[in-house]
Automatic annotation (TrEMBL):
This is Amidase domain-containing protein. The lineage of its organism: Eukaryota, Metazoa, Cnidaria, Anthozoa, Hexacorallia. The active site is at K88 (charge relay system), S163 (charge relay system), S187 (acyl-ester intermediate). PROSITE patterns: AMIDASES (PS00571). InterPro entries: Amidase_CS, Amidase_dom, AS_sf, FAAH2. Belongs to the amidase family. Residues 25-466 form the Amidase domain.
Length: 489
């Protein structure tokens, strides 16, 4: 693997600015890598390689005609100048497809950039490709009728996760260095976990969600969060600063963090119930290893706590979503023109005649039974959500972080999520609690699959989780140290 593939976006940008390497060379190396791996993992669904090379040449020409001081000033204005990036296909990128795996939109191309894509471009980054997702971004295996299935670069017989699974896989396979994902129930963090990379779900209402399909409405706008995915922890903070724009001041991203002064908590148990898997023993040991190394390095005590309400994470997420005031999922299945009948689609699917995936059909069917849930039950879970949010906010305050499992199992084999559909509860709960969460790689399992943990903080304290992610990468080893040499592609 080319040495440039082992550099963070921050380091690549510095080398490009200092004329140690050309942007064109970096772009071409990533294009070559995508071509090597994509036939095996199907992560990239469309590319703009030719345009990217032209942009890179323009960058190189611009920098060659600048003095050293001018280039340094340019680095402050455009911190990612000349660096490639990828984006989940659900985000609009001018001239690129934007169907989110929905057959009815398969020929649709975006007329303009989503705000977050535009912000990365304005920071100097160069889009090279868009990546696969699950149908309408509401399932945790990335497969659809338009683009097919994405595979895990560590074992192609296993899932890459979803809904930002193409982004996770192309990053995990070193076909990209930074990317854009979106997360309403774990769609950034689960693919990041399965593919051995970093992913951050920000505090809500900071990074714009506009320009993606489908988008959130009603209270869902507070659950859906657009955020960065990357291979190196040092890229998380600058990416979030760029994505957040002026809203970044809400997150204290410029504030120095003394990690040794933070309060650390850990929860290993409590989410699993008869609908949600209990934590795998290897993942439990990985989490304990992270906590042990933090204690040893920082001289802190990681307090193991239990919070009984977490066992209702699935129910809390489901009731919060059901009462959010968003459009019905079947409305999006019909491309916002009409509502699809999921029961009819299920019958068609039996004979291979439906244009929808089984997970999408299943979600549409579940939606039809919402009215059967007693109002009292819904209110009880909404009250529980408020109590859990307040309790966790009180514990964490402005200087506490929680180490939490990213997922209860290692990457499953293809189609197996249908037998464990609700395991996303480990990530989804923090969407409806309005809390930032950073997934961090935590080594490899005995079978060579990535493991990881979430670092969670109180609303608005994203700078704490990002600072801890840097320390975890140093102590446990992120993608580069533990994952790069173990891939099977």
């Amino acid at each position: 693997m080319d040495p440039l593939l082992h550099l963070s976006a921050t380091k690549l940008a510095k080398k490009i600015r200092e004329l140690e390497v050309s942007s064109e060379e970096v772009i071409e190396i990533y294009i070559k890598r995508i071509r090597e791996i994509n036939t095996k993992i199907n992560a990239v669904v469309d590319d703009c390689f030719r345009e990217a090379i032209d942009e890179a040449r323009d960058v190189d020409e611009l920098l060659k005609n600048m003095g050293k001081d001018e280039r340094e000033k340019m680095g402050k204005r455009k911190p990612l100048l000349g660096v490639p990036f990828t984006a989940k296909e659900s985000f609009s990128a001018k001239g690129m497809p934007n169907c989110s795996g929905l057959m009815a939109r398969k020929d649709f191309r975006a007329a303009e950039d989503a705000p977050v894509v535009e912000r990365l471009r304005l920071a100097g980054a160069i889009l090279i490709a868009v990546t696969n997702c699950s149908e309408l971004c509401m399932w945790w295996e990335s497969a659809n009728r338009v683009y097919g299935r994405t595979c895990n670069p560590f074992d192609t017989a296993r899932i890459a996760g979803g809904s930002s699974g193409g982004e996770g896989a192309v990053l995990g396979g070193a076909g990209s260095v930074i990317g854009i994902g979106a997360d309403i129930g774990g769609s950034i963090r689960m693919p990041s976990f399965f593919n051995g990379v970093f992913g951050h779900k920000p505090s809500p209402d900071v990074v714009p969600n506009a320009g993606q399909f489908p988008n959130a409405e009603g209270q869902e706008v507070h659950f859906l969060c657009t955020g960065p995915m990357c291979r190196y922890a040092e890229d998380l903070l600058p990416l979030l600063q760029i994505m957040a724009g002026e809203n970044g001041v809400k997150l204290k991203l410029d504030e120095e963090v003394d990690v040794s002064k933070l309060k650390f908590y850990s929860i290993e148990d409590g989410v699993g119930n008869f609908l949600v898997s209990k934590l795998d023993s290897e993942l439990r040991e990985a989490q304990r290893n992270v906590c042990s190394k933090l204690e040893e390095k920082l001289g802190v005590k990681v307090e193991v706590i239990m919070m009984g309400k977490f066992q209702y994470s699935l129910q809390i997420w489901a009731r919060m979503m059901a009462t959010s005031g968003g459009k019905p999922f079947c409305h999006y299945m019909g491309n916002e023109v009409e509502q699809v009948n999921p029961f009819w689609e299920f019958l068609k699917a039996i004979f291979g005649l439906s244009s929808h995936t089984l997970p999408a059909i299943g979600l549409g069917m579940l939606e039809k039974f919402e009215s059967l849930v007693p109002q009292g039950t819904t209110q009880a879970y909404l009250q529980m959500a408020q109590e859990l949010r307040q309790e966790l906010q009180r514990i964490l305050g402005e200087n506490g972080v929680l180490i939490f499992p990213s997922h209860p199992t290692l990457a499953l084999r293809h189609n197996m999520p249908m037998f464990y559909p609700f395991n996303f509860a480990y990530t989804g709960i923090f969407n409806v609690l309005y809390m930032p969460s950073t997934q961090c790689p935590a080594g490899l399992s005995k079978s060579g699959l990535p493991m990881g943990v979430q670092v969670v903080a109180a609303n608005g304290q994203d700078h704490l989780t990002l600072a801890v992610a840097m320390v975890i990468e140093e102590l446990v080893g992120g993608w580069d140290r533990l994952c790069a040499s173990k891939q099977k592609i």
